## 1
Amino acid sequence: MVKKQLEAAPRAVPLSVVILAAGQGKRMKSALPKVLQPLAGRALLKHVIDTARSLEPAAIHVVYGHGGDQVREVLKDEPVSWALQAERLGTGHAVMQAMPNVPDDHIALVLYGDVPLISRSTLTELLALAGPKQTGLLTMVLQNPSGYGRIVRNARGRVQKIVEQKDASKKELKLGECNTGVMAAPARLLKKWLKSLKNNNSQGEYYLTDVIAMAAKDKIAVNPLVTANVVEVLGVNDKTQLAELETAFRRQVTHSLMVGGVTIVDPARLDVRGTVTHGTDVLIDVNVVLEGNVKLGDRVRIGPNCIVRNSEIGDDTEVFANCVVDGTVIGTSCSIGPFARFRPTSTLASGVHIGNFVEVKNSKMGEGSKANHLSYVGDAEVGSRVNIGAGTIIANYDGVNKHRTNIADDVHTGSNSVLVAPITVGAGATIAAGSTVAGEVPAGKLTIARARQTTIEAWQRPVKQKK
Ligand code: UD1
Ligand code: CA
């Protein structure tokens, strides 16, 4: 797939991002803080941090709330600095907590930790409207603006102020243009404005939105950008909204896969929780989940109800229904499943067949090898053209330690055989059905390890005794 070239935005003014994440999210009814709720497998706040990072800012500051230690802990590896807002006194107060660490000559871009789908391209557009003497403000036009701050413009269309729903006059309430909460302002002026915020409003809060009127008063242009895609600025407050944004995100991801040429049988039934790269003529059937980093070659087909996680699937390989593929590199022209399970870390060469109810873990399988039915292949090095018979189990675990098994090329293991590891099976060896082998199995020979079949000639079935 040809990735759109990311333009290295030549930015005259350095950027600091401030992400507000101090909200508790009571309506989530969850022990997990709101900004850690997963959307497509990633915390809401992580989406915002990732998008912020794509802008290559000098720094990202996350304002977290009282009791937000879990947020810091979960995202401790993120390249962000943390600012505690001990008391939730409003959005203006929240931004203030980060400002001491933002240099005066920076543009401060304010984002919300619970607005996950904001895009890099929208933010790039907004940043182009901000500078040392101008502020960019992201707005949206809604049919039902209830609840949002309203953008008040003058007769010439210049933004004058933002009024919150609860403080708005009847006339102002009729305005359809709303504040998204996202703004880009020169740090030096923003600091000054924030210092003179008052909380004499209906909610007793320090509103970030009040800086807009201050900018207008200081003759600093407020340049509005009306968002074309409202989904980007929707916040998440409860599980219903979370599911709505999950759907919106799914739509975006499947759309871009389809634009890239992937056939998706039903885009509403494919979830991508990570990154997918793919070749041409890939087909993905219904109820598939792709997680982490997934790489699909040309003409790969994935059947219904499969989960593929952190794996690579080679050209012309077909994965049939109901497979779980985790941490595995599957070669070209393989046939997988139905009902197969791969655990990390396994590698299959080309032309391998893995059939139903086969589990493969931490193993390698050479070219053209097969395990078609009901087997466990664990901690094994399997050569080429090996046939693992139905019901073969590699007993890799002695109850304390895991041991490795080496199976050379052209080996056939009989049905229901058990290979007790550590064990080496020589090239071309055949293990008879029902054998339990624990010693070395020599190359090129038939090894049988089971009781010889006998028939008791004089045996008679017992008969029921009369009382
Ligand atoms: C805010 C805006 C409103 C806008 C709306 C868009 C203000 C005063 N109002 O309203 O104009 O239309 O967002 O959704 O800015 N937060 C903190 N600390 C606080 C308060 C809030 O971190 O003390 C965070 C929240 O967690 C949230 C964000 O800031 O991520 C917005 O807060 P929220 O209470 O949702 O703002 P609204 O009242 O909806
Ligand atoms: Ca809100």
## 2
Amino acid sequence: MDKKDVLILGIESSCDETAASVVRNGREILSDIIASQADFHEQYGGVVPELASRMHVDAIYPCIDSALKEAGVALEDIDAVAVTYGPGLVGALLVGLSAAKGLCLASGKPLVGVNHLHGHICANYLCFPELEPEFLCLCVSGGNTQIVHVKSYRDLEILGKTRDDAAGEAIDKIARVIGLGYPGGPKMDKAGQIGDIHAYEFPRNHMGDTLDFSFSGIKTAALNLINQSRQKDEEINISDFAASYQHHIANILVEHTVKASERTGIRQICLAGGVSANSFLRKAFDEASLKHDLKLYYPKLRLCTDNAAMIASAGYYEYIGGRRDELSLNASPSLKLQRQYA
Ligand code: KG4
């Protein structure tokens, strides 16, 4: 291993995935271990926070051990431990954070706190060696929807964000109501594949001149359509409904991103977060890229959803930028992606 290489151990436990990874120089994944609890929470129709925390406790050290082993390194070889400290479920975050602090205390390695949303953006660096700021990133996950101007590795500005529900939440909720279960996003995506995107109509929320989003009205309109059909004893066509709904949401996400590109003059567009796996969104972006001459970056599906490699990558840029955290660093469940990296 080159002496100048920087190795970061990344740890992630903000929701229902326990994950650990070793990444070299912010770009090269040496190991990427994920213990997902999704199958377990399926029986409850969503993540049960207390159970998630307990399962993280069981999984965290085996994940870290496997990540180090698979990377062929020992804790002494690591330059810093990067850990998600927010946003996320407080109990879940505390498990990863406590494990990271324990490792730092025992080894003397520096602790680097990472914003989970910054991690999602950095998944793109792991997939595209040539990618460098500046670019725009549409971050779409279960809890967040925002357009971020990535000015440099650590200088991030939010250009637009949702004022209510995240796109993922709007999809997950409707998936549950039409009986597709949890996790709704991938199931809606699959259900919509053979559907007609023009079969159902949904409203648009006008957000004036801003780049902000609003999905709660669209979600309510979808719920009303479902309830009205049920009252009339009519069946909604699940594939048509899933296709129309996702097509509608995807178009809004793409339109705002294109507007952001026109305003900033930036043509490099990255996607990040779980919903960026959505095929309707990718199709809408593919079409827009031809029309508006955009260069698109889609991270690999495995790196779109929660993982620790993206945390190690973000941790690398924080580490070389000088960030060091005290062992008193606390979990921050509502942590915002602001200019804290500037
Ligand atoms: O980024 P992520 O793993 O977790 C956070 O919210 O941080 O994103 C999870 C979200 C969920 O809402 C899930 O339903 C959604 O990503 N998702 C999808 C797809 N795959 C995952 N949504 C739509 N289509 C998909 N193919």
